[in-house]
Fold this protein.
Amino acid sequence: MCTFLERFHGHTCAGSLMGLRLALAAKESLKGQGKLKAKCSILACPIDGIQVGAGTTIGNKALEVEDRNELYLTLTDVKTGRQVEAHLTEKATAMGKRFRDLS
């Protein structure tokens, strides 16, 4: 999956990997087997990880983005209406900011 993410995103970075991990955790928690919809709040590298991990893309209109410069994800099972919301921990957010500053 990480190789696909690298091709999809164009490079490997902490942001895309954080988005992937967030999407996979949300999807696992939701246990959704059918069509999913997602809403996230950042227009940056993590969005590509979310698209790959959850299978919810901007292109298939299953991903809505509100650019509020914070990383959270709401994933919804379309059939059942069940939702799960995922956030990064403070530690993960701090690590991402340090990586961004080093770039």
